[in-house]
Structures are given as C-alpha cells and as structure tokens.
UniProtKB/TrEMBL annotation:
Family membership: Belongs to the calycin superfamily. Lipocalin family.
Domain annotation Lipocalin/cytosolic fatty-acid binding: ranges: 34-166
Signal peptide from the UniProt entry: 1-20
Gene3D superfamilies in UniProt: 2.40.128.20
Gene: Lcn15
A molecular function (GO) term: small molecule binding
Protein name: LCN15 protein
Keywords per UniProt: Signal
Keyword Signal (UniProt): yes
Protein origin, superkingdom: Eukaryota
Keyword Lipoprotein: no
Pfam family, one: Lipocalin
SUPFAM superfamilies: Lipocalins
Organism the protein comes from: Turnix velox (Little buttonquail)
C-alpha cells in the first residue's frame, strides 16, 4: 500500500499540472490583504530551499501597497544569530491579486486564496534560466496555523504540482517578532 502511493500520486500530479493556470482570489481586495502575516508553511521545488527547509523558522511578512497599486513586501527571517530583513517590490498587473517582480529577476506572485482575516495562500513562480521553480506559502494572521488552513494549503500545494516532500511546516518561534519594520503591529 505505502509503496503504491507515490507513483499514483505522481501520475495524478502530472495530470493536474497539464495546463494548470494558477487561479487568483476572486475580487481580491488589496486594502484588506495589507498588514502583518506570519509564514506558517512553505512548499517549493527550489533545490536551495529543499536543502535548508528543515532548519527554517517562521518568518514575518509585512504587506503594503503603493499609491500605484504595487505590492511592497517586507520580510524578516529568523536566522541563526540575527533577524535578516529583505524588501521586495512587485508590480501590479491587470489582474487584482496578480503581481510581477520589478527587477531583472523574473518573478510572478499570485494570491491564490485568502479570507484576509486569518489565512492566505500565495503562489510564487521564479522563471530564472538557471533553475525555474515555484513556491507556495501559507500566511496566517495568528502565529499558530490551524489544521484547517494547513489542509487548504496542502490541497492547493498538490493542485500546482508540489508534493508533501517539498513542504516545510515552519515551527513557531518567538524570534524576531519584536524586531518589526517601523514598529507598527
Ligand atoms: C530565482 O532563482 C534563481 C536561481 O535559483 C535565484 O538566483 C534568484 O535569486 C531567484 N529570484 C528570486 C527573486 O527569488
Ligand atoms: C519546479 O516546477 C516548475 C513548474 O512545475 C518547473 O518548471 C521547474 O522545472 C521545476 N524546477 C525544479 C528545480 O524542479
């Protein structure tokens, strides 16, 4: 039984992947999506991520929008001995909830599903020539992700062709929570 599962799952996944256009939350409302999110889980087929995923901790994301409607993402990652900060800007597209990277790095970001007040599932595509990959993130407003949201996340994960082996459920830590951008929480 256990031996059969992977091949069945793989066959199913390759079917699902054919022509799979990644959906975006209908009627996406950027104003409601803004604010602080915790990254509760990530699934990706990026080789670098797969190597380090077991040591990863929950990071904190602050989303805001420019007057033009572009998405500004401020990230704080708890590392070994410090809180690493990044800022990424994504340009809006003609579709609400769909953004593209601004630099030479080709990146595509879609908010697949969100209820704004408790969870969101965000899909990212990196079309780099060296190693194209995709990633799915489960964002939650609370530091604890309920099993219900994790289940939604895993369903979407399978629907975009990512597998359980590529998933990291990020352990809750108290690290870096005080160290927010601008101190607005
Ligand atoms: C895209 O992937 C490439 C190769 O793995 C990496 O060098 C680059 O930093 C990635 N870009 C982004 C925006 O993550
Ligand atoms: C990751 O998945 C994407 C989309 O399915 C695929 O194009 C890419 O080649 C995969 N990358 C790796 C490193 O497996």
């Amino acid at each position: 039984m256990m031996m059969m599962l992977p091949s069945v799952a793989l066959a199913l996944l390759s079917l699902l992947q054919v022509g799979a256009e990644v959906p975006v939350q209908q009627g996406f409302d950027s104003e409601k999506f803004a604010g602080i999110w915790y990254v509760a889980a990530i699934a990706s087929n990026c080789s670098v991520f797969l190597k380090m995923k077991d040591g990863m901790k929950a990071s904190i994301i602050t989303i805001s929008f420019t007057p033009e409607g572009d998405l500004d993402m401020k990230l704080i990652l708890p590392m070994e001995d410090k809180c690493q900060k990044y800022e990424l800007l994504f340009q809006r597209t003609g579709h609400a909830g769909h953004y593209v990277g601004t630099s030479e790095e080709v990146r595509d970001l879609r908010v697949m599903e969100t209820d704004y007040s408790s969870y969101a599932v965000v899909h990212e595509l990196n079309h780099s020539k060296e190693e194209p990959h995709r990633a799915l993130q489960l964002l939650t407003r609370e530091q604890d992700a309920s099993p219900q949201f994790l289940q939604k996340f895993e369903e979407l994960m399978l629907s975009v062709g990512l597998t359980k082996e590529m998933e990291a459920i990020l352990p809750k830590t108290g690290e870096c929570w005080e160290d927010t951008w601008g101190g607005t929480r």
